[in-house]
């Protein structure tokens, strides 16, 4: 990391934008005009355009005390393209606006954009627009991600049907435990700055928190395998909450099985250390950015050779509600906070 | 205005989004899927898609002490579609994200969205996406405006050519004087809350500040009259600054004439009261949201019957630089702050 500090004011707003965007090279033919005019121009040539936006506020969505700006830039792009993948679409462009107080130097902004560009390269998206402005306090990010999809091939949350299999990619709960860990270490550090953070063996959960990846590979696998999910959503608020959304919007119910929930060994160990239930972390932790989706039972064979997808349950009638069957065989109603969040769980 | 106060927490995040977006009716066939999924979907059916985003921060871009939330919602949409018009495109959709502290009630957010929806109706755009989140301090708005344009018919800032006429819509400088007035009244009020604001006769300049309109009519006029500007930009940072951008990006120079600058009578009177030069306000005031554009001389006849367009100068070689000729016949180099901002001007 450079020790230099260049004041933003020395470049001016337009100089800063030029500085931050001078190395952009478009990866998509659909990116016709980028940063530098009143607006950007794209052409998806007969495909449909998918758009999502997000507002990320320092102190609410991230803590710069333990979030390197490079990771924050990367994560900003990753979590937004995750929403594009959740539509079964391919991300192609992003627009990023940042507001920052004068505690941020040009070098700090460069680090943020290094992360942005690294994620752009990873996901094949072009930065085509930006806004830089000052804030009274802290760092504020707005991100609009844009993608394309063949006409009417996008997947909503509302298409799940009775009998469909409920599937999730990757594993769950790690980012939440990463957050607990970083908050604990922050507290220790604030009480005694001499003590160095103890992150030994916690690389996985910290990585899941600070540098999540969007599931580009899963959407590409769908295309190759000829799968079109009936419904899909990315897991940002916690599995329970997303299952409930999907059920509500599809007008269905669901049963999931505790023993089918994909949980990484490091997550289980961290949950044990934090005196938490790994299952509860998986259900209500959030920030996993995995894909939760439903497929017809007939497509079960097609996902057989993708070992990073778990079938965690199935879709029922709306009247049956949304439940989880515990390892002990008990059935509990799902709530947005996991299940029975105020009374512990039964197993 | 309602005196009720409903806490945002009583609705929850998803309840709030549902509440704020429940009356949306799409005006555009291109709006396929709106609020409520991971992302929105549009299809511009063979046209190109134009996108711009903006981040507006309380205390930096607006002061809620004299900005009604309804006006702020309207202005958010107006200033963003203004960027779409500045590309010679038609706005079709917007995405709006807001972050707010707990001092804002549901009723306050309703007022903001009333303004948003009023502007959406005025400009024919559909709200298709949103994000609502909390902030540590103040009200923060991110807006992404989307528009469409026939293939390759968008107008950049870079197409002005020597001999082109330099034109501007409407009149300039009023919003800046509106800002001076509101800041003065705020100061008086803070010193003595008994004193009521004195806005007598200042309706025009205050309106230009608090409820600017984007120049939909001008872009529609271009289409009817068969005009395609060679370059265009909207006047958000002040005429001087925009002329300099246009010259830089087009690789040209410009001459403008002080006596051709369109300035409203109320603006002149307000400038006099504030002991300011109306010309300086027009050149460097900003927030006018008028369109500055260039057309070939051959198109002069075509704008003849549009009395809300002023020809204020012409385009020269880059070597000649950018100048203004004063009423007294003196020639001054334009600067981003107007001209000779630190030394007064010559006439």
UniProtKB/TrEMBL annotation, chains A, B:
It comes from the Bacteria. Belongs to the thiamine-monophosphate kinase family. The keyword Kinase applies. Signal peptide: none annotated. Mg(2+) 2 binds at residues 54, 83. This is Thiamine-monophosphate kinase. Mg(2+) 4 binds at residues 38, 52, 83. Reaction mechanism of ThiL seems to utilize a direct, inline transfer of the gamma-phosphate of ATP to TMP rather than a phosphorylated enzyme intermediate. Mg(2+) 1 binds at residues 54, 131.
């Amino acid at each position: 990391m450079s020790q230099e500090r260049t004041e933003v004011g020395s470049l001016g707003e337009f100089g800063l934008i030029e500085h931050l965007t001078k190395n952009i090279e478009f990866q998509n033919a659909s990116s016709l005009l980028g940063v530098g005019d009143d607006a950007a121009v794209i052409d998806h040539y007969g495909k449909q355009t998918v758009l999502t936006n997000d507002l990320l506020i320092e102190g609410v969505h991230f803590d710069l005390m333990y979030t390197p700006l490079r990771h924050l830039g990367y994560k900003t792009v990753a979590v937004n393209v995750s929403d594009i993948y959740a539509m079964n679409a391919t991300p192609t462009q992003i627009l990023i606006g940042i507001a920052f107080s004068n505690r941020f130097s040009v070098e700090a902004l460069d680090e943020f954009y290094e992360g942005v560009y690294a994620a752009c390269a990873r996901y094949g998206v072009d930065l085509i627009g930006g806004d830089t402005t000052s804030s009274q306090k802290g760092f504020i990010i707005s991100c609009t991600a844009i993608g394309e999809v063949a006409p009417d091939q996008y997947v909503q949350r509302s298409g799940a049907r009775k009998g469909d299999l409920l599937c999730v990619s990757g594993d769950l709960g790690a980012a939440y435990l990463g957050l607990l860990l970083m908050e604990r270490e922050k507290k220790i550090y604030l009480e005694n700055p001499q003590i160095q953070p103890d992150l030994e063996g916690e690389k996985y959960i910290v990585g899941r928190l600070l540098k999540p990846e969007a599931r580009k590979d899963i959407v590409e696998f769908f295309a190759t395998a000829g799968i079109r999910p009936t419904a899909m959503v990315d897991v940002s608020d916690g599995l329970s909450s997303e299952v409930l959304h999907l059920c509500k919007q599809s007008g269905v119910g669901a049963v999931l099985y505790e023993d089918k929930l994909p949980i990484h060994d490091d997550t289980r160990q961290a949950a044990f250390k934090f005196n938490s239930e790994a299952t509860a972390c998986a259900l209500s932790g959030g920030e996993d950015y995995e894909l939760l989706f439903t497929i017809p039972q007939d497509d079960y064979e097609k996902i057989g050779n993708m070992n990073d997808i778990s079938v965690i349950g199935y879709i029922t009638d709306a009247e049956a509600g949304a439940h989880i069957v515990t390892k002990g065989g008990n059935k509990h109603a799902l709530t947005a906070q996991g299940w029975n969040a105020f009374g512990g769980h039964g197993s």
